[in-house]
Amino acid sequence: MISEQAQSGFDYIFKKAVLANISSSTDDNCEIESVDSLEGVNEDEFVVLTISSTFFRFLTLFHFNSADDATRNYFLRNANIEAGDNSAFLDAFQEVCNICCGVMNRELHKSYLFLGMSTPYVLLRQCVPFVSALNPGYVKHYRITINHSLELHATLCICDYDIVDFTVDTSADEDTTGELELF
């Protein structure tokens, strides 16, 4: 069983990790919104990363289309690569996904001491329906829009092996810009 509080926690740490790491510049606009399903999603592939504990397995799927020039160029530019073949793009995109997952892993480590994280791997879109074979206790889909034009999708899939319940401290995320510190 995955508590409502834990579901909110997974949602929160995912959004926080993506907003902080998927954009190549602080000037980029990144928006994340929940979507009901992946119907109509046209990405051909997805990167999978897994965080596992004795209580749960947390899969994060970042859907992408490697044939889309805007997506390729954005993530190659992110990695400071001017041009590259498909393997250069995949390396760059997987590294961004890996960084996001690492941030989520560190956040979950505050509540769960023994966690393991996979390396990223790429699967084809035809594999998405088989995720249900893992019997997940919680699945959530997102649309990620960068600079109002580049669109990606993501899926969170949590398989529970025990009661999953934790809280995330959101108080540290309060905006403190504009404060002056006097000595």
Give the SSE layout.
Elements: H1 4-21, E1 30-35, E2 45-52, E3 56-64, H2 69-78, H3 86-108, E4 116-117, E5 121-124, E6 138-146, E7 150-160
Antiparallel strand pairs: 1-6, 2-3, 2-4, 2-5, 3-7, 6-7
Helix pairs in contact: 1-3, 2-3
> What is the 3D form?
globular
Poorly predicted ranges: 174-178
Q: How is the CATH topology named?
A: Chemotaxis protein chec
Q: What percentage of amino acids are in beta strands?
A: 25-35%
CATH class: Alpha Beta
Task: Count every helix, treating DSSP H or I runs of 4 or more residues as helices.
Answer: 3
Mean pLDDT: 89
Task: List the domain count as a whole number.
Answer: 1
Instruction: Tell me which CATH architecture applies here.
Output: 3-Layer(aba) Sandwich
What's the gyration radius in Å? Answer: 17 Å
Largest sheet: 7 strands, antiparallel
SS content category: alpha+beta
Please trace the helix and strand order, writing H or E for each element: HEEEHHEEEE
Helix content: 25-40%
For the record, what is the CATH homologous superfamily label?
A: CheC-like
Number of separate strands: 7
Q: What's the end-to-end separation, in Å?
A: 50 Å
